[in-house]
Amino acid sequence: MVSADFIHDCSQCAALCCMAPTINKGARFPIDKPACTACPNLMEGGLCQIHAEREDLGYLGCVDFTCFGAGQKTTQEMFGGRSWQDDPRLQEPMARAFLDLFRVQESRWLLQTAAFMGIPPEKEEERRAMLANMEPPAEGWTLEALDATLDRQPPDGVRAWLRSLAGGMPVPPGH
Ligand code: SF4
């Protein structure tokens, strides 16, 4: 069973997915938005003014998005519960940390999910080693621990390994 560690908790997050990523107008979004800028629908306090109408208004990319828990971990563990909405100096570092931790959490989720794909023993050893390289610190994530994890186990390497498996790779929700 995949860990509850990957369930997002928006109540503990500074609305990071509404600010950090680039949004491209298309089938899943009706607007363009550069990275590290607030969505025009985001209100003070991290609330979305079109939350109940997102599907009708074409924000399908928001409806099924998950950050794999990166949002609340970035906000609470790395920034002590603070928000870039209260302190604009945090906007850039919070966006960067969130996007990096998102890639780590997504990779960890993919590796845990791969355990159910019936992979051969030598690949299973590699899977466990990569997962161990991305283990969250016992005391919670810090910016330093995140940088060290990205150096030790780049998420692109995880994706390449998953593609090398016969039968393809698991597809994360929202992708
Ligand atoms: S980044 Fe994650 S936890 Fe934060 S608001 Fe978005 S989905 Fe929720």
Secondary structure topology:
Elements: H1 60-63, H2 70-78, H3 91-114, H4 121-133, H5 143-152, H6 155-164
The structure holds iron/sulfur cluster.
The site of iron/sulfur cluster has 11 residues, from helix 2.
Characteristics of this structure?
mainly alpha, binds iron/sulfur cluster, 0% strand, 6 helices, globular, 175 residues
Write up what this structure looks like:
This protein has helices spanning 60-63, 70-78, 91-114, 121-133, 143-152, 155-164. With 175 residues, the protein is mostly helical. The longest helix is centred in the middle third of the chain and has 24 residues, at 91-114. It is globular, with a radius of gyration of 17 Å. The two termini are 21 Å apart. The site of iron/sulfur cluster has 11 residues, from helix 2.
Count of alpha and pi helical runs: 6
The topology string of helices and strands comes to HHHHHH
Bound molecules: iron/sulfur cluster
Mean pLDDT: 94
Give the total of beta strands.
0
Q: Unreliable runs, pLDDT <50, ≥5 residues?
A: none
CA-based gyration radius: 17 Å
Shape: globular
Fraction of residues in β-strands? under 5%
Number of domains: 1
| Largest sheet composition | none
Strand-pairing-aware structural class: mainly alpha
> Helical residue percent?
40-55%
